[in-house]
Specification:
The chain is an alpha+beta fold. The protein folds into 2 domains: 25-100; 104-237, Histidine kinase-like ATPase, C-terminal domain (Heat Shock Protein 90), CATH 3.30.565. Helices cover 62% and strands 14% of the residues. It is built from 7 helices and 5 strands, in the order H-H-H-E-H-H-E-E-H-H-E-E. The chain has helices at 2-66, 72-99, 108-123, 134-138, 142-163, 192-196, 203-212; strands spanning 127-131, 168-174, 178-185, 216-221, 227-234. Strand 4 (216-221) and strand 5 (227-234) form a beta hairpin. The longest helix has 65 residues, at 2-66. It is elongated and about 70 Å long. 21% of the residues are buried.
Length: 243
Amino acid sequence: MRHSVDSITTQIRPGTSRRREVMHFAPQQINAARDAERTRIGRELHDVLGAHLTALRLTLELVRRQAPDGNSALSSALESLELGLADTQTAVSTLAHDLHPPELRDGLSMALRAWVRQFERRTALPCAWECDDAAALDALEPATAAALFRITQEALNNAAKHARATQLRVALVARRQSVTLTVADNGRGIPAGARRKSTSLGLKGMQERCISLNGTFRIENAQPHGTAVRVTLPRRAGSATLS
């Protein structure tokens, strides 16, 4: 009987270990699949929809050249279409870039710096950029770099939508075994109840990315006012030591 119990226990433990391993890696796989899909959609937006919009713009230019002079109503309609098309092209280009930033292939520091500047132009919100070691950031593993990039996007977009801020800051600090991202604003802050609701302000996805990479995620009210999102991830995937 004792032998049977030991045998059952031996069988259960490997199974439990495998389940834990699957539960640990499942979020990483989900995030990797999500990033791959975003990349595909971004490429399709740029290549396919972008080409169609360019063709429409060329067609409008042809129509304008062939339109009879003196028809103010037609000229006004064409001008309105051209302005609307230009706005649509800008929106598609921005969305495609957000979904599939080509600079990320050249390193995280360049990609984030470019995206922060684009964010400033789009929102008219000044955002300070601080990076203490660009070389260390550019040497991060792809999963870690992608997570930091997406979390920065989400945190800045949340601040622009909800914080009522006039100044933002993005800071990346590389240490021996970890890298820490801080996205802070001088807005109205977040009530304690809202911080407990992880689905509010789009925090759930950021938390899941951190957990899948053995990282830590904190959101807190900054002093004297505002909000700070702080993320620390190990520089090597799978490491749990953050120092």
